[in-house]
Amino acid sequence: MSTQSVPQIQKAWLILRKGKPSDVLALKQDVAVPSKLSKGEVLVRVQAAAMNPVGYKVMGFLPNFIARRPHVAEHDFTGIIANANGTELENGQAVYGFVPVQLKLKTKQGSLAQYLRVPASHCVPRPSTLTPTQAAGLTLSGLTAYQALFNIAKLEPGQSLFINGGSTAVGIYATQLAKAIGCTVTVSASGKKEDFVRSFGVDNFVDYTKGPVHEQLARNPPSPKFHVIFEAVGGTDVALYTSSEAYLAPGGIFVSVGIHPHGGMSGYKQALHYLWELNRPSLFGGIQRKWKLILVAFDRESLERYSEFVADGKVKPAVDSVYAFEDVQEAYARIMSSRASGKVVVKVDPTVE
């Protein structure tokens, strides 16, 4: 596509203020298409975008003076380079990538728009084997899993990994990355999703509907114990960590996507309790296992290495559902229900597969 064919205005979903998506999101028909690109930036014609928990959580948490609203919603995208702007990418090239939270706060750019201005470094070529709706949700969840397992936990071939939340998008990508290097993977999920998660190579399964996961693991600890536990759900139940000496090996590491209060005073009291348990000295009953938080950050090396797993077919997309661009509110309702298995995708271009 030549730069001359790029329109001046576009459709985009804007976050107007702090709050729930149903209250603060608006579809605007006359948003300016970025016309000035800084050195190293490209213009992407977005074909599809994906929803992420961080999207609606930041939407409901950060005040306007920090978030600099209004700005375009969401982070994950795939599309076609409309203006390569002298970078290593080419006009017409298919790519996928993401807009980190920090970059969004600076540029006000997001993926729920027809055009997106983003650094070329945040894009990687999209394999021809993937459709836009398949590729749209690969980056943020996949990079979270990659950085958690390899940058933080230092997972090695042949080790044993437990993933709490095996049917989440992050959990699905973590499973595939671990299996790709030859690890044994145990996950928890609802029994109804056992066949689904096993299709990604899961070795052992824990049904959380049959009792607290930490109690099930403590009753039947693996031998040898897990080298890494990856908590891919987020929450305020600290028991999986505080009981982990029973099933996490000495020197092992517990990595979590975060502490996410569910609202109200009780949720924040739970979060404070979680923080106390994480920092409790051993003299007062603290456990001897490391706990680390994963806050995904842009890292070109990680993105390139992760994209190699995708290009080689070792990490495959997991799409829960696909929505039309006009149905973004329904897409948010789906991801906020916590029932999605894999990524919730929005077709920005209605003609793509």
UniProtKB/TrEMBL annotation:
GO terms for molecular function: oxidoreductase activity. It holds the Pfam family ADH_zinc_N_2. CDD domains: MDR1. Residues 20-346 form the Enoyl reductase (ER) domain. GO terms for cellular component: mitochondrion. It comes from the Eukaryota. SMART domains: PKS_ER. This is Enoyl reductase (ER) domain-containing protein. It comes from Hermanssonia centrifuga.
